[in-house]
Amino acid sequence: MRRALALWRRAPGYLTVAAVDGASVRMAGSAGAVWDLLPDIDAEPVNLASLVATLADDFDEDIDVVGRDVTSVLDALEAIGCVVRLP
Amino acid sequence: MSFASHDHPALIAAARHRLPLPGAPADAPAVIRPDELEGVRIAARTDRISGLLAGALRVGEVVVDGDDDGMAQSSVDDDWHDTLHASVLLEALLVRLAERLDGAGVRWRLTKGAAVAHLDEPDPALRGFADVDVVVHADDWDRALDAVPVERTGRTRALAFAHRYGKGATAMVDGMEIDVHLRFAVGRFATRARMADCFETADTVHLAGRAIPTLSAEFRLLHACHHAVLGGSAELRAFRDVAQLALASPATVTATWEVAREWGVEAVMASAIVEGWRRLRLPPDHPVVQKAATVTIGAEDRRVLELFAREAPFRQQVLTSWAALPHHERPRFAWSAWRMSQEHRS
Asked: How high is the ipTM of this complex?
């Protein structure tokens, strides 16, 4: 999984991302931390399980809780075409 | 020359936030009384410096009296987040616009908000903007108007005037504004601009995989100076742009003085720097402002700068071109301005 073509801004506790067609999302909480860990479009993709593990470790949270949060963030980003899930 | 005398200290502290001033002593925090908070927030939103205010609050350069529960920080953060969301939507529009301009073969450069955000600020999230600003080559004007696209109906003469003497044109796309500049200002100083110079160099920002050409740093600073003293509302943000660009790179300042000298607009650059230092209360012994203070501004240039500073009507601003134009150009200017005014009346 990795980023796709996107415009974005980060602030403490905030992330907003837009696709070139203008579809956009704005998210609070740890969504920005998820975005920070997603590789750029031309970089090696990251495995979802390792992404979740890293965040769970960083935030000292239960891995299942983090997994649900990350999935929800990725779903929103994928819906506007700003994240690519690879098979 | 004075542009505003009642900037709230918190707004000034915000506009100074993270300026590259190594070694400058820390100021005492600017204090916002609870009854002032709403007004300060509105002013920051209007000036698109909510991100700077949020940052200044976060590090204690600005404090809100009695804000023990952090609600003030939270409310300013909300304003900042709205600005950030608007910025990414505008950048999405910019990427679509870039495709059209490039496809039409228009020579163009991004300037002001998005360019300064990505190239000059320490973090693009600090620089809010409410429109997309591009400079197009005058020879590509018609193609640019088609590509943007600018509404032409009933504005033929206004657009012809803009092409010859004006600042440019504005388009609205999906409720967002695109300013298509031909010059950095109207009036006396615009008659001296050699805008084709802007297209001999470029910097680049990469947005959503697309290379976006921007004005190079000396022209970004020169545009910021024009906007600060000739742009109308003399916002703190405009002076921060001047200070940020001028403080970040002595080489850029030197190159900008060179262009300003070649164009005959040293008065604009000097005035913007001196006024910016005054408005932002920056160290008066800094070499950038000391150099600006040595520039001699002629009486007519000073009169025109003061006319813009007091936000005289647009017609008066445009008419400052008259004395600066060569004699043989004046009849055409008068004719073009008269035709534009007739179109405006009809």
From this structure: 0.95
Whether residues A10 and B125 touch (CB distance < 8 A) is answered with: yes
Does the pLDDT of residue A55 top 90, yes or no?
yes
pTM, two decimals, is 0.94
Question: Residue B341's pLDDT is what?
Answer: 79
Percent of chain A with pLDDT over 90: 86
What's the confidence (pLDDT) of residue A11? 96
Question: Is A6–B208 a contact, with Cβ atoms under 8 angstroms apart?
Answer: yes
Q: Is B73 helix (H, G, I), strand (E, B) or coil?
A: helix
Q: Please check whether residue A14 touches B, CB under 8 A.
A: yes
A/B interface, count of CB pairs below 8 Å: 59
What is the token pair recorded at B57?
């609050």
Structure tokens at B301: 């240039």
The phi, psi pair for B50, rounded to 5°, reads -60, -35
Please give the pLDDT value at position B2. 40
pLDDT surpasses 90 at A3: no
Helices (H) and strands (E) in chain A, counts: 3, 5
Which regions of chain B are under pLDDT 50? 1-5
Chain B closest-CA separation from residue A2 CA (Å): 14
Quick one: tokens of B237? 């943000």
Asked if B79 and B41 count as a contact pair (C-beta separation under 8 A), the reply is yes
Cβ burial A55-69 (10 Å sphere, 16+ → b, else e)? bbeeeeeeeeebbeb
Tens-digit pLDDT profile for residues B64-118: 999 889 899 999 999 999 999 999 999 999 999 999 999 999 999 999 999 999 9
- Phi, psi dihedrals of residue A6, rounded to the nearest 5°: -160, 155
In terms of CA atoms, which chain B residue is nearest residue A13?
A: B77
Interface mutation target, options B50, B84, B85, B88, chain A, most CBs of A under 10 Å? B88
CA distance A18 to chain B (A): 6
Contact B133, B179 (CB under 8 A): yes
> Which of B54, B88, B93 is the closest to A8 by Cβ?
B88
pLDDT at B346 (0 to 100): 62
Put simply, whether A43 touches B (Cβ < 8 Å) is no
Q: Are B234 and B3 in contact (CB under 8 A)?
A: yes
* Cβ-defined contact of A9 to B207 (cutoff 8 Å): no
Residues of chain B contacting A20 with CB distance shorter than 8 Å: 92, 95-96, 208
